Amino acid sequence: MRSVWIIASASVLVFFSWVTWVFVTDPTTGIEWVAFESTGGETSAMVKFQITAPPGTPVTCALRTVDASMGTNGWTVRSYPASDQFTAQYSETVKAVSEVFGIDVYRCWRDDR
Prior knowledge:
The chain is an alpha+beta fold. The chain has one helix at 2-25, and strands at 32-40, 44-52, 59-66, 72-80, 87-95, 102-110.
């Protein structure tokens, strides 16, 4: 019976250690982004969005455009300096290789360089 408790305790300790490691090393932890306005054009599109991050955290975001079949036809990666505010608003234009149907902020992460 003692070995069952030891194995169970070790399993719980390993699990919680792993969860802690995932949250500490995940570059998107604490970063949220919301696109609230976008306009498309022939081969470019503009998006306005806001990023919520802990103050003093530089953030990098990948933005993409898609065509009518929802295939990616344009990418850009932008870095934003650390801000003393929780939420900051940005506006970006992305060029594409064909007609743009939509644009979105694909992903944002902490820029710990």
